[in-house]
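User: Please predict the structure of the protein below. I'd like the answer in structure-token form so I can feed it into my own downstream comparison script.

Assistant: Understood. Taking the following sequence of 343 residues as input:
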Amino acid sequence: MKPKSPKRIAGKRIIRYLFWTFIIFLIIKGAVSYAKGTQIIQEVTNIGTNHTIVEDSLKGFASDFATEYFTWSVNNVNDRALRLQHFISGIDQDAGLKGYEIKGSSSVLSVEIYDTEQISNSLYEVTLNVRREVDLDSLQGAEPSKVKKGSVVKKTYMVVPVTVSSSGYVIQSHPRFIGNQLKGESDSITAGGLNTNVDLINQSTELATNVLQAYFAGNVNQLKYFYEDNGNAPSSLSQNEFTLDRVEYVSLFNMPSSEGRPEHIRMETSVLVQNDIGEVFTNRWILNVVNKGDRLYVLSIGNPKQESIESKGMNNQLPSNDEESKVEITTPEDNDASITTTE
């Protein structure tokens, strides 16, 4: 037997070994690359579903509501109620607008998001600045006239309460109009027992009337008079375009003491407000008060708030009050809203 034959067989085995080693290397490299690719996709998925995106959609919901809320025609007011049904539950179909008091057609020019506060696990308050145009030539019931009244641009600061439910967002109480943002103390809301004392309700109605008249007028000195500690009153207020028409009703709840807040009474008030062109809206205001010496004193106005979304780091992309970071949602003539951010 020739001695060269075994050497040829050994050479082929070496070639096969190198070949399969290379194939295995490619397979392992491909598997590693595939695993890394899956990891990157998973990271993108997490970013796409984090709290920031949820809050963006919540702010968009509030902005869409505000647009429909301030859009109507004197010739078809019922259309507004139909549009609002996509946003509200448990309140009147007009969301507080007194249709018989409207003065001309109204269309929204822009909606600016100023702030978002988390009130509880399911409730948020979105503060908006709404600019709208009111056509005074279409005054309801007005006689035809050769003299054109033209239109006016109204700006309203609006706080919209948005509830996060299992099926989406919903607005379950009337919004309120403010001259500037009110910051409440960080606290959680604890349900209290209903207080039906008639004398206390009458006293509370009088207090709510005086407090809100001072607030809408921007009278800080007068407002401080009603506070238990006037240091908790707003340091400054701009005069609101709305004035208090009257307090419709007041509901009182006995609230137990909690961290940073004594035992007190929670006043939930439904009020009518009116602007200078005669439009009347329903607002919902909350006053936290304490009874001392047969007199009620204000502890704070508004829901006691949890930490703001910004301070919790849950939505660090929210706009501030700084002009350079406002988010403006404009409503062009074709009713397709576009969002622009000024950096």
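That's the full token string. The chain has a mean pLDDT of 76.
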